[in-house]
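Task card 7
Instruction: Convert sequence to structure tokens.
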Amino acid sequence: FFEDQDYEEAAYYYRIAYSKEKEKIHDVYIKIADAYYEMESYDQASKYYENAGLYKEKEESYSLGKLKDNRDGKEYKIVKIGDQVWMADNLAYDSDGGNYAYNNDKSKVKKYGYLYGDYTIENGNICPSGWSVPTKEDFETLLDNYGGSKDLTKNYNALMPGGVSGFNATLGGSYESMESDEYFRSLSESGYYWSSSGDGDGLVWFLSFQKSDKESQLVKLTNWMMYSVRCVKD
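Output:
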């Protein structure tokens, strides 16, 4: 029912599932909350997200509804994680040439957002007003909320779609250009999110998700790749 976007029926049967398998109460509460969220019943969704948090120590996810970007009217789900407020969707703002849709297919932008070059970030904040490209420290705080930044598997499970954090890391792949060739890589297999922090030696920090290894971690690279952006509230 959920896959068919019949969220009311999905919520009904998830509640039945809870009555049958109480040992999975946390996962079922998340499913119910997601169904209510898609129906835009945010009060109900928040209640079930909160209930889910009661069954996972230090793991809380609160839906805060949606953010509207006044520049283009696009809306993004937002979520509170610890003391931070994050977009729960990849940024999909068209920065007039500073971004690519995966495989140049704009039908993918709604789900995966655009891929951005680090030069786009360096030339100004591309996030909506009141929001920013996260720093390395912002990402470290996010990771530390879920087992510490070195607990790669626990971080991954919490931050992926369906994970307890609500961050909903969508694996948007990457883009690179080498001389006359261009390469789009790893859609739905890998996800990379730019930070605004460099290391002083020409390398830039980003948050990496690898489906094959079920790992999430902070790494750094030169700025010739194009990655996704997820904004954090100022």
